[in-house]
Fold:
Amino acid sequence: DQSPDTHAYRQTGHYGSKFGLSWEEAQIAARRIAQAPHLQLTGLHAHIGSQFFDLKPLFRAIDRLAALAAWVQGQGLGEVRYFSPGGGLGVPYHPDDPAPRLVEAVRGLSEYAARAWQERVGGPYSTLALEPGRSLIARAGLALYTVGAMRHLTTGQRIIAVDGGMSDNLRPALYGARYTAALAHAPLAPTAGPARIVGPLCESGDFLIDSIDLPKAHPGDVLVVPGSGAYHLSMASNYNGMLRPAVWLHARGKLIPMQRRETVADLLRRDFPLPPQ
Structure:
């Protein structure tokens, strides 16, 4: 069991997971590959989860992969030239999240893998493959929402509805992911108290941020949510007939369209006309 400290839905390295093979299953698979005339075992890979900050679970995965590589090569079942403990390094979506230390993480994983390989396998090093994924891409994207209706509760909290939510970013509803946000025209303005940022769909699970201190907002203001480059729009859907937003690339001082905004015609294009009576 190599489960990292993250939401249960993002833990993929435990025995009850739908992913991967147990140690015994991996040994059986290695023997079957060795007997197959058109297959060759050249690499090992682990996938333990995502959005975690502690490197220890990845160290444990490296130890298991190195031990398996030693067994594979000791049994003459293949030459492990590539191995990867996977990805999953977290990014700070919320002010309470740890600061990113990608360079230190890569250095630490590389050095640990080199030691583990020499101690357990020996001989020429295999190629170590790391998957930074989210830790590179998340911070490359911003999500922009337009403020619509607002409610002011007697508790002092505001409910601010925007033109997006769980249809374009399922993470808060799916596993309680936390984000921060700012008003585009006044990112450093003093707060006017707590607010809950919600979407337009007819269920309470449609929200982006459960609680955040924001300046005074008005309909038409633009709300900016950073850290939206990964696992955001890629998880979007047409739930309740919602339309996916446009995507723009900002490069060298220019805005370049990448995807146009979805239309109702796009939704209807898949429909067949009813047969005549």
Remarks:
- The chain has two domains: 8-137, 141-260.
- Residues 56-74 form the longest helix (19 residues).
- The chain has a mean pLDDT of 93.
- The two ends are 60 Å apart (CA to CA).
